[in-house]
Write a sequence for this structure.
C-alpha cells in the first residue's frame, strides 16, 4: 500500500512533466498571438498597454520553457525580469526610464532563447513534436528579436529608415512588418534602411533567415534518416524472433 503522502508528490511530478512537454507549444502559441495581434493593436485606444501585456506574456512563456534548464534559468530571469520592470516603468513613467532599456533586455533574452532552442534542436536524437515546435518558435524568435532591434535603432536614429508613406515611424507594427519581410527575404521596398546600422541589421537578418532554414531542414532530415533504419532493424528483429517461436 502506498503512503498517502506520495500522492501530492506524484501530482507535482506529473504537473512538472506536463509543463515541460507543453511549454514549447505554449511559447509558440504566445509568439504567434503576439505577431498576429501587433498590427491590429496599433489602431486601438490603449495600444501601448496591450502591446506591453503581450510582450510580458512572451517573456513569461519563454521563462516557462527555460525553467527545465536550471543552469540557464537564472540568467534568463536576470534578463527577463529587469526587461519587464523597465517596460512597465516606461509605460507609466516614460520620463524615468527610456524605452531603449527594455528593448535591450528583451533582445538579450530572445537571443538567449534562440541559442538554447538551437542547441536543443541540434542535440535532439529524434524528431518529436517538441523539436518541431522549437524549430518554428526559433524562426519566430528571430523575427521578434530583429523587431526590437529595429525599434531600438528607430528610436536612437529616427532617420535610419525611409518610408514610402509620409508620416511613418519605426513603431512596433512597422518594425514587426519590416523584420519578417527581411527575414523571409521578400523585400517589398516600402521601408528602406538608410543608415549603416540599419542596413547591417537587415543584411544580418536576411542571412540568418536563409541559413537557419537550410540548417533546420538538413538537421531534421538527418535525424529522420538516422533513426528510421534503426527502427526498421528493430522491427525486423522482432518479427524474426516471433517467427522463430
Amino acid at each position: 500500500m502506498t503512503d498517502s503522502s506520495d500522492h501530492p508528490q506524484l501530482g507535482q511530478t506529473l504537473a512538472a512533466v506536463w509543463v515541460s512537454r507543453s511549454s514549447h507549444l505554449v511559447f509558440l502559441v504566445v509568439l504567434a498571438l503576439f505577431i498576429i495581434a501587433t498590427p491590429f493593436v496599433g489602431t486601438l485606444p490603449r495600444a501601448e498597454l496591450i502591446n506591453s501585456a503581450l510582450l510580458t506574456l512572451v517573456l513569461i512563456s519563454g521563462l516557462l520553457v527555460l525553467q527545465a534548464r536550471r543552469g540557464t534559468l537564472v540568467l534568463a530571469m536576470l534578463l527577463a525580469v529587469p526587461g519587464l520592470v523597465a517596460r512597465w516603468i516606461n509605460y507609466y513613467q516614460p520620463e524615468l526610464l527610456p524605452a531603449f532599456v527594455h528593448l535591450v533586455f528583451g533582445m538579450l533574452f530572445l537571443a538567449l532563447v534562440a541559442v538554447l532552442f538551437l542547441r536543443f534542436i541540434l542535440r535532439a536524437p529524434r524528431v518529436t513534436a517538441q523539436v518541431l515546435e522549437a524549430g518554428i518558435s526559433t524562426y519566430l524568435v528571430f523575427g521578434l528579436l530583429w523587431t526590437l532591434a529595429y525599434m531600438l535603432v528607430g528610436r536612437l536614429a529616427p532617420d535610419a529608415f525611409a518610408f514610402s508613406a509620409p508620416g511613418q515611424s519605426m513603431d512596433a507594427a512597422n518594425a514587426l512588418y519590416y523584420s519578417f519581410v527581411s527575414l523571409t527575404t521578400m523585400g517589398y521596398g516600402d521601408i528602406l534602411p538608410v543608415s549603416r546600422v540599419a542596413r547591417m541589421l537587415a543584411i544580418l537578418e536576411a542571412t540568418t533567415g536563409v541559413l537557419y532554414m537550410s540548417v533546420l531542414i538538413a538537421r531534421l532530415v538527418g535525424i529522420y534518416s538516422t533513426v528510421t533504419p534503426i527502427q526498421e532493424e528493430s522491427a525486423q528483429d522482432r518479427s524474426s524472433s516471433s517467427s522463430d517461436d
The beta strands are 161-163, 191-193. The longest strand covers residues 161-163.
